[in-house]
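Researcher: Here's the sequence for the chain we discussed earlier.
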Amino acid sequence: MIVLRIQRYGLKVFTSLYLVFSIFCASVSVTAGQNQDIRLVKDITEGSGDSLVPNVSNMVSIGQQLYFAADDQVHGSELWITDGSAAGTHMVQDMNPGIGDTFPVFLTAFNGALVFADAYYSPTLWKSDGSPNGVLSIHEFAPTEWRKRLHQPLVVDGAIYLFFSLSTTDEQPRAGFELWTSKGTSASTTLLKGVYSDNGDSDANFGTFIPDLTEVNGTIYFSADDGVHGYELWRTDGTADGTYLVKDLTVGSDSSWPAHLTQLGDMLYFVNSADGSLWQSDGSESGTVLVSESVENQPHSGYIHEMISHADSLYFLRQAACSTGDLDCWSLWKSDGSTQGTVLIKEIAGEPEHLMAVGKQVIFTVFVQNQEFSQYLWVSDGSSSGTHLLKGFVDFLSKGFNAASLHEQLYFAADDGQHGLELWQSDGTVDGTQLVDDLVPGAASSDPRTLTAAFGALYFSASDAEHGRELYRMKLFEPQNNFLPIIRK
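Model: Thanks. This is the structure I predict for it:
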């Protein structure tokens, strides 16, 4: 009997048997709608009302705390914090007292604290340490429609960099959409440089591209127009004198529209959107050189639409003529940063997007019209044979692909035609691409959004008829019992 063996061999055998039993139970207890690792963090609205608004504000973790925006139907949309427990989930401060909204947006970790902006209360940059009295104003800007012209801040070497439109009203002089910097105080929050020589409006590709702020070895690169050279590549070291044009790729007032600014090694890579070519830069004019040109009407040699760096290579998508003669074809490419090392991986039947690094592979989505499944998940290891379909879905999400990557797993929201829009995971294999949980059983959807990996867990918002849209937590890779410390002793 097991009891006799425990008495004979002692605690070590008991611990081992317990571990085996725990692993066995864990392996058979996870079924659709019954995943014990997923739970509602807290019903903030205490009913069917929504406390979280999807796809508006992000969530960010700092230490063992997660910050997010929520509305308890009493205080409006305010800044909240959680440690993953119901008791540890609470509003930080009612910044706009009463039912009025502050609507915190662009949540960013900064020197152990949180920096964020408010979308409705006033055009102000704020800082919080998570305590009720620890919310402080960094800088209040002039009244404007600035929330439509602010980009996610970038933190480099203890300083915040952000694009900000100081004024767009007729009543006030137009300062334009420029690069600002701050070290966390009002006195240190300043316009870095008025790039546009006439009216201070660099515009930073606003309305045409997301204004990329990309850091490489302490230097920040971005795209801007000084009114003379068109939209070109710029750089800054955080000083006015150190903010200048790198190179005028399209000489004169015409623009090269630099996009998809991406670091690989010690170099910056970007796309000349005027002609679809790939460029490399070390930050100097002479060191900004062509890597791969785009030749009109040549198979696969077209415009680059998306690019990431992963495992010492660039991966990007090109839209161009096909080898079959079709005029509109997509293909996956990779590059080691050299002209010779920039090669076609595979032609893709459909429209690929959402390149994501997962483990040693790249996972992406493909949209195909007039199919049983219109959305497909693909994987690539950088070779043609290793680039293939994983699974077809009815839909990922009508307003974007919600996904998070952690520990060589991709977590995402998808609809397979049977379970509605629910949480899935993939390790880059066909068998490893599977439903995590059917939170709302059947064809109805829980519609997971804002997937965020934080301190050993996956956080996301989801909706059901009983609770509305609330915050959920999925435990990831944590010890399943308390006997491991005993074994170590």
